[in-house]
Amino acid sequence: MSLQGTISTTPMDGAAAVLATDAFRLVYAEAFAEPPYYETADDVAAAFRHFPALTRRLAFRAVLARSSKGEPIGMAYGCPLRPDTVWWDELTKPVSDDMRRENGHRTFGLMELAVRAQWRGQGVARQLHKTLLDGTGAERVLLNVHPASEAAPAAYRSWGYRKIGEARLGGQGGELHDVMLLALG
Question: What is the per-residue burial (b if ≥16 Cβ within 10 Å, else e) of 6-29?
Fold first, then answer.
């Protein structure tokens, strides 16, 4: 799919995403090295040690955006939340049983969405988001976002997400993140 004639977005399943791991890692490393994330090379390596296992999850989806020269400029990926997901358990305040009910296709978990700095403000993130969610069949999308990031939460709000709580990712010692939900359809 073409975006402004110079950018292409390619939807991928898990197998294709594994083959493009270096491109996903490049975008991730650059985007999350910036404030407020400050991810180091060790953080990136740790994140991508788990990437192959993540891509084998049922219904994993990814999208990679490239410039007209083939340079990776943005990426997004996620998968439906399984009935035994821990995403809801990380919230600092419990939500209703109905809210947390998962069946493997009700909620799509948006795990990462990032665009390299020089390509921001051109609609790349919006196109990645749209392409990733097209055809998921999910009722809603759930994500965690760093509250000190101004651009990401603002973009998500403009796309219809609403904050439903806060979560400590990785348990009690993790950083506090905003949890946002988007109703689809």
Answer: ebbbebbebeebbebeebbbbbbb
Helix (H, G, I), strand (E, B) or coil at 180: strand
E strands along the chain, which residues? Answer: 2-3, 7-12, 61-67, 72-80, 107-115, 140-145, 162-168, 176-183
* pTM (predicted TM-score): 0.94
Query: SS in 3 state form for 45-71?
Result: HHHHHCHHHHHCCCCCEEEEEEECCCC
User: Can you point out the beta strands (E) in 81-124?
Assistant: 107-115
Q: If pLDDT is split at 50, 70 and 90, which confidence band does 58 have?
A: confident
Q: CB–CB of 63/10 below 8 Å?
A: yes
Give the burial class of 147: count Cβ atoms within 10 A of its Cβ; 0-12 exposed, 13-18 middle, 19 or more buried: middle
Query: Which residue do the tokens 């402004």 mark?
Result: 4
Question: Which band of pLDDT confidence, cut at 50, 70 and 90, is reported for residue 1?
Answer: very low
